[in-house]
Amino acid sequence: MSTAVTGSRDDGDRAGAAVPPDPVEALAARWADAVAGTSYVPLQPDELEELLRGLLHRLHAALDEPPVRQGPAGRQVGAALVDAHFTNPQSLSQTLCVLLDGGPGGAAPSREGAPPDHRWHALVAAVAEGFSAALQDRALREEEAILGAAAAAREQAREALHVSQERFRAVFEGATIGIGIGDLEGRILDVNPALVRLLGHPVEDFRRRSVQEFMHPADVEHVWRLYGELIRGERDHFRLEKQFLKSDGESVWTDLTVSLLRDGDGRPRYQLALIHDVTALRHLRRRLEFEAQHDALTGLPNRRTFLAHLDAVFDQASPGARAGLCYLDLDGFKAVNDTLGHEVGDQLLVAVAQRLVSVVRDRGLSVARLGGDEFVVLVPGTSGSAQLVALAEEVLAAVAQPVQLGGRRVEITASVGVVERSIADIDPAELLRAADMTLYWAKADGRSQWALFEPERDAREITRYRLSSALPAALAGEHLLVHYQPLRRLADGRLHGVEALVRWEHPRMGLLGPESFVGLAEESGMIVPLGRHVLRAACRQAFSWFGAEASGPFVSVNLASRQLRDEHLVDDVRAALADSGLHPQQLQLEITESAVLGTDPLTGHTLDALAGMGVRLAIDDFGTGYSNLAHLRRLPLDELKLDGSFLRGLRSDDAVDPVDVQLVGSIVSLAHLLGLTVTAEGVETPAQVAILRELDCDAGQGTHLGRPADPADLGRLLDPV
């Protein structure tokens, strides 16, 4: 390659000779083009050309040296090529072609016929010699490195194998779990000390025996199937809990893992067994399972186990099958705990449990403790309720026997709820609920007895429960209404007052009277807000009818015993009067005899405070309680309401009971003597009105004088009869 820059010879201003190219630069460029790609050299083209340019300068400089120094210089250039990673013979071939063809001038090939430059040729030959020698040295060094690495690798492998063997032996000998190695025929090749200690056989004994000889008689077919699959190479391992027999014949439970060991080609060669003693763990697990399924105090099955058994009876029942429960609860058990202590109470529960077991064991039944002092006996496959009743009577008799506890004679009774039903007609939860409900009946009916489940009574109880649950929402949603029944003066038929009677407009059951839910309100504590609601509504309605006149008709509102004991009652009454504008003497509060019998200080203070406000107070249903007029004399009362039962003998002119006439007359006279007005309840006939008028009874209330009605329909009833 050569370049020239020339100008026009005819242009005198720019005429001149071209600058000749550097022969070393040209030869270096040709050399770089020739060797490019012949070897892998990590140099860019300009870096490669610079390297070769330097080597050419060294060769040209050697031409001026004595012949003895020219050879080493050429060999150094050849070695430099190898050091630069020109290691392919083609690189040498191309180098020789370029150097021999370029000549010592390097600009162009030697002219034809020109004498060869023997010094240059000798120098190029030295380059080839140096290249070959360096390439051979490099190959030898690489071979030595490879051989050294191979030797080091072999030594490392031997060392690693030795370390691995030592490590395995340390693990094998020092492991706390048993390890055994066997061949595929089942011959035991080696065992570690832990396995010797576990099973009690010496190492030599193991090596004389096969794996099959250590199988336990209780091993199921499943164990043998897994072992066979492992030996045939169909699985690589299996794990299970298995028994082994020790040298002394004792059985030991183990956690066994057996693995298949293969050679480098994947062929099965050995079996490795890891055996861990889990006897204590298994016993602990069994104990925990027992404790989870049984009552800790009595050892009887607990509620969880009983429910599982009950579910199983239903799941496995044949068509037409029946089942029953005897649900038992001790009577007065809390008193035993409170008076004799919980330790004696626990001893009593244990004694009762043992007696129940003695009763049911011969029948093939089981008894469970559901908690506290409640026990239950499940009777599957029953033939009728008589079978359950007989069992309940035997249970009651067994429990009632006195028991000696810590030197004390303790007597206890029980109540039993009995239910027996077709399995097709009920589910387990409903059967248990029915038994629980029936036990409640037995308790409510007097204790120390059994009660048999009655579907009709159960339906009533369910209705009561649903009403009790829905009562708060009914009160909040204004579904509780107030109707009114007139009280009339018997002398002239004019209005004496009205009684407020609460009603429940139930969305499904229609209009319900107070007998359906007031008792539930008293039990649940809802009676106080319910009474407050009725009081406020009644006062507002009375004011809209009668205005605020002290001598006008009044509205009478019933108070439950719990309301009378409420410390906020006086404030509630005062607020109802103030909000409505009604005069206090136009409000009458009705209370029962039992509510004021043996009046406590709070109740007495409440009655005095109400009377001091001017509110009328009346005794409701007089004659159904203790009928103690002497006690009533000490109370700030205004009126006595005679219970309607006294008027039953006065219904007809033809069949008047003179005793009843005298009795009613005496009560009226005594009440008047105490300064009380008398209103007779349950007036249903004109004959009763006539007799009561003759006896100077002040007022009457009943269907003959006016039925309870909605405020909107009561207008005509407020007129005289």
From TrEMBL:
<feature type="domain" description="PAS">
    <location>
        <begin position="164"/>
        <end position="234"/>
    </location>
</feature>
<dbReference type="InterPro" id="IPR013767">
    <property type="entry name" value="PAS_fold"/>
</dbReference>
<dbReference type="InterPro" id="IPR000160">
    <property type="entry name" value="GGDEF_dom"/>
</dbReference>
<dbReference type="InterPro" id="IPR052155">
    <property type="entry name" value="Biofilm_reg_signaling"/>
</dbReference>
<dbReference type="InterPro" id="IPR043128">
    <property type="entry name" value="Rev_trsase/Diguanyl_cyclase"/>
</dbReference>
<feature type="domain" description="PAC">
    <location>
        <begin position="238"/>
        <end position="290"/>
    </location>
</feature>
<feature type="domain" description="GGDEF">
    <location>
        <begin position="321"/>
        <end position="455"/>
    </location>
</feature>
<dbReference type="InterPro" id="IPR000014">
    <property type="entry name" value="PAS"/>
</dbReference>
<protein>
    <submittedName>
        <fullName>PAS domain S-box-containing protein/diguanylate cyclase (GGDEF) domain-containing protein</fullName>
    </submittedName>
</protein>
<dbReference type="InterPro" id="IPR001633">
    <property type="entry name" value="EAL_dom"/>
</dbReference>
<dbReference type="Pfam" id="PF00989">
    <property type="entry name" value="PAS"/>
</dbReference>
<dbReference type="InterPro" id="IPR001610">
    <property type="entry name" value="PAC"/>
</dbReference>
<dbReference type="InterPro" id="IPR000700">
    <property type="entry name" value="PAS-assoc_C"/>
</dbReference>
<dbReference type="GO" id="GO:0006355">
    <property type="term" value="P:regulation of DNA-templated transcription"/>
</dbReference>
<dbReference type="Pfam" id="PF00563">
    <property type="entry name" value="EAL"/>
</dbReference>
<feature type="domain" description="EAL">
    <location>
        <begin position="464"/>
        <end position="721"/>
    </location>
</feature>
<dbReference type="InterPro" id="IPR029787">
    <property type="entry name" value="Nucleotide_cyclase"/>
</dbReference>
<feature type="region of interest" description="Disordered">
    <location>
        <begin position="1"/>
        <end position="20"/>
    </location>
</feature>
<dbReference type="Pfam" id="PF00990">
    <property type="entry name" value="GGDEF"/>
</dbReference>
<dbReference type="InterPro" id="IPR035919">
    <property type="entry name" value="EAL_sf"/>
</dbReference>
<dbReference type="InterPro" id="IPR035965">
    <property type="entry name" value="PAS-like_dom_sf"/>
</dbReference>
